[in-house]
Amino acid sequence: MTDLRESAPATSARTSVKPSTGSPAAAAGRSVLKHAVLIAVSIVMVYPLLWLLVSSFRPTEVIFRTPGLWINDLVTSNYTGGWTALAQPFGHYIVNSAIVVVGAVAGNLFACSLAAYAFARCRFRGRNLWFAVMLITVMVPIHVVLVPQYILFNNLGWVNTFVPLILPKFLATDSFFIFLMVQFIRGIPRELDEAARIDGCGHGRIFLRVMLPLMGPALATTAIFTFIWTWSDFFTPLIYLTDPNSYTVPVALKSFLDATSGSNWGAMFAMSIVTLVPLFLVFLFGQRFLVKGIATTGGK
Amino acid sequence: MSAISELSSIRTGRSGRPRTPEEKAARRRENGRDNKAAYLFLAPWFIGLVVITIGPMLASLYLSFTKYSLLQPPEWIGVQNYLDMLGDARLHHSLKVTFTYVVVGVPLQLAFALAVAMVLDRGMRGLPLYRSIFYLPSMLGGSVAIALLWRQIFGTQGLVNQLLGAVGVESTTGWVSDPEYALWTIIVLHVWTFGSPMVIFLAGLRQIPAMYHEAAAVDGATRWTRFTRITLPLLSPIIFFNLVLQLINAFQSFTQAFVVSGGTGGPADSTMFYSLYLYQKGFGQFEMGYAAAMAWLLVLIVGVLTAVNFLLSKYWVFYDD
C-alpha cells in the first residue's frame, strides 16, 4: 500500500518520456485534437452551471426562452425576492447550515484523528478485529440504522435540533475518514514518535505534539469533505428537521419548490447560487488537498 | 489494495522480536500502556459503534419482524414484512429502477472517467485547469441546487429543448415528466459527475512506470495493445476500488430522484429509487417495521454484490506485488 508521503513526491518527480510514434507533425496534430476534445467536454461540463448563474440574473419569463449565456436585461430582483420568499429570510437557513457544518467538521476532526492514531500507532489486543469492523462499517448503508436511530433521537427529544446531525460525528461514525487518516499516519516515519517516546512522552503527548502537526493534509482533506458533504446533505436533515425554523439550506431550497410550485424559477435559481457559493469557495481553495486526499485512498 | 487488502493483511508495524527476558518484560509493559491508551483513544469510536451503528442495526433487525408505527409499541409479526415484500409490486418496481440506474449509470460514469483520465496526460498543458473543470460537477452534483437545475434543464421549456430548438429540432418533450425518459435524465446527471473517479484514475495512471510503455513501444506495440496489455491490468486495482465504491453509493441514491420528482418518485413511479420508496414507507406512512425490513434487503443486496465483486476480482484484478 503506497501512502501519500511516499507516492506524492515520487510520482510528481517521475517526468514522463512519452514513447514517440510517428512524425512531429502527427504528434502536434494529436495534441490539437486532444485539446479540442477536452475543450468540448469542458463546455458540456460547465455549461449548465454557467447557465444557472446567468439565469439567476434574468427575469423568470426570459429564462424559459434563452439557451444562451448573454444577458440583455440584468435584474437582481431574483436575489432580493428569493432571499425573503420563505418563512424566514434565507440567511436564517444559512446560519442553521453553518452551525451543523462547523459541528460536523469539529466532530470528525476530533474523533476520527483519535481513532486513527490508535489504529495506526498503538498495539493493542483485538486491533486487527476492530480495524476490520471499522472498515466494514464504511460499507453499511445508512438505511439499516436509520429507523432505530430516528426512534432513539426522537425519544431523547432531539428531533428538530441539530444534535442528530452533529453528535454522530463526535463518535467517529464516518469511518471513511478514520481509514484515510490511518493511511496517512502510516506514511509518517516511526522514528519521530519513537524519539518522542524515548524522551518520555506518552501517547497523549505524541498525538498532540508530534502527530497532529504532521497530519495537516489528512486533516484538511477530512475537513473539506465533511464540509462539502454536510453542506449538501439532504437526506438526514429531511428526516430530523421537520420544523421550518430548523431547516438547513438544502431542505429550505427544496421547500422553495413547494412554496412557489415551480413558477418562480428566477428566485429559486438565485438561492441555488447562494447555496452553491460556499461549496464553490471550498472547492476552489481546497481542491489541491482533495486531489491528494482522494489519490491516497484510491492508491494501491 | 487499500481497504480491501487491509482486511487480509494488517501490518503490525514494528519489526524485530524482543530477544532477552528484559526486552520481553519491557515490551509487555509497553503493550499494557498501549492497550490502555488505545482504548482511551478509541473510546468515542467505540461508543459510536455501539450506540449509533451496531445497536441500531440489531434494533432494526428486530423491528423488521414487527409492525411499528412509532405511536404504538412494536407488535411481533414474524416474517410477515418479508412475505409482504415478496408481493409488493411497487417494491419490485423500485428495485428494477434502482438496478437500471446502477447497471447503466455506474459503468458509463466509470468509462467516461477513465477515458478522460487517459486523455489527460501527465505533464500536459492546462492539466490542472481541465481537472478542476471536470471535478467541479462531482463536488456540486449531490446538492439540491443542482437537482433543481436538472429539473429545469430537462423540463418542457428547459435548456435541452431550447438547445434542440436552436439547432432546428422542435421538441416539446418534458423529459423529467415523461415516464420513458425521467430515469435517464438522472442517469445523465450521474455520468456528469464523473470527476471524482476520474481523479482516482489519474492518480493510478501516474503510478504506472513510463518505462513499461516505452519498452512496449520499442517492441512495436500499438496504442491499443499498450492500453489493453499494460494500462488496464496495472490499473485494475483502481478500477476495482472505484467500482466497489460507486456501486455501494449508487444503490443508496436518493436526493436527485427526490428533488427531480418532487418527492413522489414519479412520473408513474419511473424514478422510484429503492431508498426513496423506503423513505416513503418509513417516514411518509410510518410503517417503520416494513422500512426496517426493506433496509435489510438492501444490506443483503449490497453485501452480495460486493462479495460477488470480490470473488470475480480474482479473475481480472492484478496486483503487481
TrEMBL record, chain B:
Gene3D superfamilies from the UniProt entry: MetI-like
| Regions of compositional bias (Polar residues) in chain numbering | 1-12
Q: Where is the ABC transmembrane type-1 domain positioned along the sequence?
A: 95-309
Which keywords annotate this record? Cell membrane, Membrane, Sugar transport, Transmembrane, Transmembrane helix, Transport
The biased composition feature labelled Basic and acidic residues covers: 19-30
Provide the primary localization.
Answer: membrane
Q: Tell me if Transmembrane is a UniProt keyword of this record.
A: yes
**Pfam family, any one:** BPD_transp_1
Query: Quick one: where's region Disordered?
Result: 1-30
Q: Look up the record and give one Gene Ontology term from the biological process aspect.
A: transmembrane transport
Q: Which residues cross the membrane?
A: 37-63, 99-120, 132-150, 181-205, 232-251, 291-312
Keyword Transmembrane included in the entry's annotation: yes
Name one cellular component (GO) term: plasma membrane
Compartments where found: Cell membrane
Q: What is the protein's membrane topology class?
A: Multi-pass membrane protein
Query: Could you say which protein family the record assigns here?
Result: Belongs to the binding-protein-dependent transport system permease family.
PANTHER family of this UniProt entry?
ABC TRANSPORTER PERMEASE PROTEIN, ABC TRANSPORTER PERMEASE PROTEIN YESP-RELATED
- Record's protein name: Multiple sugar transport system permease protein
Please report the organism this UniProt entry assigns to the protein: Kineococcus aurantiacus
